[in-house]
Amino acid sequence: MSTGVVVQDEVSDQFQDFKLKKGEQLRYFIYKIGKDKKSIEIEKKGTKDKTYDDFVADLPENDCRYGLIEVEFETDDNRETSKLVFISWNPDTASVRPKMLYSGSKEAIKAALNGVGIHINATDYSELDFEASILPVVKRFA
């Protein structure tokens, strides 16, 4: 299902810098579909000193968003590493129309964020729990 929503150039440009650790040092991005319902734009950026909990706190409780975060963790063999994780936040409490729009537009932003191998869909806060839900998925890619 395609909605015709396009990704703003700024999203791709800043993602490339983020991926290559150029320019502004960030921990995460939160993206939203603009008021015109035609483009995906950057809503918030989290600086490098922010945590995963800050990222989750920046997601609206009753509305959909996309997020990209660099998750730092220790592997099972005690190496410090990090992975980029794309999260589609589509809470059960959101209205039907935004849920459909975000679900149908997800492939457009995933294509713009080329190279992110970990994609997680979350519909409630329990699916965003770091230790129980996120870390086990991320460790599979370490």
What would you call the shape? Answer: globular
The CATH architecture would be 3-Layer(aba) Sandwich
SS class: alpha/beta
Task: Return the domain count.
Answer: 1
Separate helix tally = 4
Whole-angstrom Rg: 15 Å
Contiguous uncertain segments of 5+ residues: none
Helix and strand run: EHEEHEEHEH
CATH topology: Severin
Defining traits:
Severin; single chain; 142 residues; 6 strands; 4 helices; alpha/beta; six-stranded mixed β-sheet
How would you portray this structure in words?
With 142 residues, this protein is of the alpha/beta class. The protein has one domain (6-140): Severin, CATH 3.40.20.10. Helix content is 31%, strand content 31%. It contains 4 helices and 6 strands; from the N terminus they run βαββαββαβα. It has a 6-stranded mixed sheet, sandwiched between helices. A hairpin with a 5-residue loop joins strand 2 (26-33) and strand 3. The longest helix has 17 residues, at 96-112. The radius of gyration is 15 Å and the shape is globular. It starts with 5 loop residues before the first strand and ends with a helix. The model has no long low-confidence stretch (mean pLDDT 95).
